[in-house]
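Let's practice the habit of predicting before peeking. Look at the sequence and jot down your guess about where helices and strands might fall. Then scroll down.
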Amino acid sequence: MKEQDRESVEFVKSHFSKDPTEPTQCDLLLNRSRWSIVESVDLIIQALHLAEERANQAEPTSLQVPW
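Done guessing? Here is the structure:
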């Protein structure tokens, strides 16, 4: 199991140049001892909706001319 974990970490590092063991690389961390599967899914969906709203707010709605 440790070998498989090491291989997974190396895969992410080599393909995405990210360290999956570094918590700051994550958008959302859930402690599964605190949340049920259903609650975890609900939290993930809420986070995705918030991310989508932020992305939509960042996009200009029309061509903005500076003058």
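How did you do? The mean pLDDT is 88.
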